[in-house]
Amino acid sequence: MRTFDFAPLHRATVGFDQIADLMDRVMTNDVGQSSYPPYNIEKTAADSYRISIAVAGFSDSDLTVEVKENALVVSGRKAEDDDSERSFLHRGIATRAFERRFHLADHVRVTGASHSDGMLHIDLTREIPEALKPRRIEIASTSPASVKTDVVDAKAVN
Q1: What are the pLDDT digits (tens) for 109-126?
Q2: pLDDT value at residue 30
Q3: What is the reported pTM?
Q4: Where are the beta strands (DSSP E) in 14-137?
Q5: Where are the domains of the chain?
Q6: Which CATH class, in words, describes the domain spanning 38-81+93-128?
């Protein structure tokens, strides 16, 4: 796998630490990252997204969705069942505890979550503040007809 040195980025820029940290996180090969539970991320509109997570076997009370410090944390913890009386020939439905983290960009907020048919859907929206939105600046005309000159009439005093 390739590795990149971000030292020149740190020497030549100010305030881009988050981007370098994000790139470091993406480029590291984290073997501890589980693929459970599977999920989809879709773009539903220009500034709207939906994360869908397959959570078969979990009820609403077993799931937790929270946002803290630009990170969306989805966790599930199934109440302990007494499986001693049950005998499985094959156990393929995983109901083990999980925690899945998603890093959210600035101005992205969670607008809602719903759970149906074994899928947890989390809706997100990017809301750009008015101060950061582009605005049009009117250009004033400076044609010679519109320029007023101050003329002082002078009279001879002698």
Answers
A1: 999 999 999 999 999 999
A2: 57
A3: 0.65
A4: 39-45, 48-54, 63-68, 71-76, 98-103, 108-116, 119-126
A5: 1-31, 38-81+93-128
A6: mainly beta
